[in-house]
Design goal:
The model has no long low-confidence stretch (mean pLDDT about 85). Among the domains are: about 70 residues; about 200 residues, MetI-like (MetI-like fold, Orthogonal Bundle), CATH 1.10.3720. The strands form two sheets. Strands 3-2-4 form a three-stranded antiparallel beta sheet. A two-stranded antiparallel sheet has the order 1-5. It is elongated and about 120 Å long. It has 22 helices and five strands. By secondary structure, the chain is mainly α.
Length: about 425
């Protein structure tokens, strides 16, 4: 019977478990997997081929591969083979001229295009036009450059054919570098740890989260406690007004802030009328850009905090407040000794939730300053988004962006554990100390 109940309960939970696995666990797992690859827009998300390009040779030259070997790879070789002769016939070259080539030059190989053309000029049925002669010569040319090889074995065979005396290590480097698909690597994390931009992003993110979180918690507390002591009707109207940042669609909310702070906006017009500096406050300077970013996100978070704190305040027994008033307690003493101690758990939740939310949020910054001016207001989450999905150059680096996201998850989980220890979460879920 217990086992049957277990199966029945599992059956009822199965839809929720499937949704959890499909919408949460699978994306997290895929992000973790992609973080250990060099997957990008150039590699694609599936397997690739081997292609030796001019840019690849330049990179190998910079990495110390012997220049003479790379120059030979870039050369075009002219060889008279049955395949090349068939290609010439199919292209409509004079059959008599093709027959001359087959009779006198078959099996010969030329590394210099001019030398091959000189040989062709000496044939009886050569074309009279130089252009036709060059077109015919090109049909016998073959180069390893920009040739697509299906696998490493074919690429290796082609490289060895051009560089028969090259060391095996050199051939291995060329073949490995020519692979266009993604590969497993830990280079993304090494790159993040060594990049000079990493420290700037960390400082920006810490400042953004700390400043916005402080605004969210303290303003939310102030609003909740302030409306708690107001008459119910007035408190209701005031609360609804403060919910507007939370209820307004984020795109419309960002447009409103742009109208408020850009050239010709409300702040700009007011500053100009008062003789104060008037400019685009959202992108015109670093201090004003950070102020806008913090306020945009802070008002949304304060609305959320106010809802939770207001609900928690209503759960406080009113008799405690009455008793404190009989004892002569002031409003501040009520807040300090009665209200705040009983808001400990709601504050824990708001701090934890808002920290994780701010760590992963970027849409408000993206829609307002877009990390500007320059990249001074860019945070870790926004940089991860731009790296993987929104790069202006089109060089989307999925693996590097995923690695940044994984590091953000690790930081979020670590902070959650710290918060739970700091606020003694075990007391909240433990057995009550007073039994009724």
């Amino acid at each position: 019977m217990p086992f049957q109940r277990y199966l029945l309960g599992l059956g009822f939970l199965s839809p929720a478990l499937l949704v959890l696995a499909g919408l949460f666990l699978m994306p997290v797992a895929l992000t973790g997997i992609i973080a250990f690859t060099n997957m990008s827009i150039s590699t694609g998300v599936s397997g690739g081929a081997h292609v030796i390009t001019g840019n690849l040779l330049t990179g190998l030259r910079d990495d110390g591969v012997e220049p003479a070997a790379l120059d030979r790879l870039a050369e075009t070789v002219f060889e008279v083979t049955p395949e090349a002769l068939a290609r010439a016939r199919a292209a409509g070259v004079d059959p008599a001229f093709v027959a001359d080539i087959e009779e006198r030059l078959v099996g010969r190989r030329f590394t210099d295009g001019r030398a091959f053309e000189r040989e062709l000029k000496g044939l009886p049925h050569r074309p009279r036009a130089i252009r036709d002669l060059k077109v015919a010569a090109d049909l016998f040319g073959a180069s390893i450059l920009n040739t697509r090889f299906a696998d490493a074995a074919a690429a290796r065979q082609a490289v060895v054919g051009v560089l028969p005396d090259a060391p095996e290590a050199t051939v291995d480097r060329i073949v490995a570098a020519s692979y266009t698909g993604w590969q497993w690597t830990t280079g993304n994390f090494a790159r993040l740890l060594s990049s000079p931009d990493t420290l700037r992003l960390i400082v920006n993110t810490v400042f953004y989260v700390a400043a916005t979180l402080s605004f969210t918690v303290f303003v939310g507390l102030f609003l909740a406690i302030g409306t708690f002591y107001l008459p119910p009707a007035t408190a209701g109207v005031f609360s609804v007004l403060w919910l507007l940042p939370r209820l307004t669609p984020v795109v419309l909310y960002a447009v409103m802030w742009k109208w408020f702070t850009w050239e010709g906006g409300f702040v700009y017009t007011a500053a100009e009328a008062l003789g104060l500096p008037a400019f685009n406050y959202m992108k015109g300077s670093v201090p004003t850009a950070w102020t806008i970013v913090i306020l945009v996100n802070g008002f949304i978070g304060a609305s959320f905090s106010m809802i939770l704190f207001s609900s928690a305040l209503k759960a406080i027994p009113i008799q405690q407040l009455w008793a404190s008033e009989v004892d002569g307690a002031s409003r501040w003493q009520q807040v300090r000794y009665i209200v705040l101690p009983q808001l400990r758990w709601p504050i824990l939740f708001v701090v934890s939730y808002q920290t994780l939310s701010l760590l992963s949020s970027y849409q408000e910054i993206w829609l307002t300053t877009n990390g500007g001016p320059g990249r001074t207001t860019s945070v870790w989450a926004l940089e991860s988004f731009n790296t993987a999905l929104n790069n202006y150059t089109g060089d989307l680096q999925y693996g590097l962006g995923a690695a940044m996201a994984v590091m953000l998850v690790v930081v979020g989980v670590t902070l959650s554990v710290i918060y739970l220890r700091l606020f003694r979460f075990d007391d909240l879920v433990g057995r009550p100390k007073i039994e009724f």
